[in-house]
């Protein structure tokens, strides 16, 4: 599958067992310089987040999870989830999935 964006993301609400739609997602450099912003779609995915290539280095993706849970009247320990990850410009694509619940989360390098 070809991607127009070098970075994509996906959020699954593991308590509901369903995609987490409507979460704001920010991609920045490690020092916080903004690169892109998007919102998860009805399938919990961000198919386009930034440019088609990035230079090698460390980047940061932040998910606005507090707003997501507040909209569901659900308490949460995490107002946001921030993941730093290393990019190798020679790669073709990075996918950052987030498995989310109000009091826990996990992530991995997806495909």
Automatic annotation (TrEMBL):
It comes from the Bacteria. GO terms for biological process: purine nucleobase metabolic process. SUPFAM superfamilies: Transthyretin (synonym: prealbumin). Keywords: Hydrolase, Purine metabolism. The keyword Hydrolase applies. Substrate binds at residues 10, 45, 108. GO terms for molecular function: hydroxyisourate hydrolase activity. InterPro entries: Hydroxyisourate_hydrolase, Thyroxine_BS, Transthyretin/HIU_hydrolase, Transthyretin/HIU_hydrolase_d, Transthyretin/HIU_hydrolase_sf. Its EC number is 3.5.2.17. Residues 2-110 form the Transthyretin/hydroxyisourate hydrolase domain. SMART domains: TR_THY. The keyword rRNA-binding does not apply. It is an enzyme of class 3 (hydrolase). Pfam families: Transthyretin. It catalyses: 5-hydroxyisourate + H2O = 5-hydroxy-2-oxo-4-ureido-2,5-dihydro-1H-imidazole-5-carboxylate + H(+). NCBIfam families: hdxy_isourate. Catalyzes the hydrolysis of 5-hydroxyisourate (HIU) to 2-oxo-4-hydroxy-4-carboxy-5-ureidoimidazoline (OHCU). Homotetramer. Belongs to the transthyretin family. 5-hydroxyisourate hydrolase subfamily. This is 5-hydroxyisourate hydrolase. The lineage of its organism: Bacteria, Bacillati, Actinomycetota, Actinomycetes, Micrococcales.
């Amino acid at each position: 599958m070809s991607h127009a964006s070098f970075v994509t993301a996906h959020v699954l609400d593991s308590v509901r067992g369903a995609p987490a739609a409507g979460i704001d997602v920010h991609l920045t450099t490690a020092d916080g310089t903004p690169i892109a912003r998007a919102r998860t779609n009805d399938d919990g995915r961000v198919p386009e987040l930034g440019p088609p290539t990035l230079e090698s280095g460390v980047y940061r993706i932040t998910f606005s999870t507090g707003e997501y849970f507040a909209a569901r009247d659900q308490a949460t320990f995490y107002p946001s989830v921030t993941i730093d990850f290393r990019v190798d410009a020679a790669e073709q694509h990075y996918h950052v999935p987030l498995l989310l619940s109000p009091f826990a989360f996990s992530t991995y390098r997806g495909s």
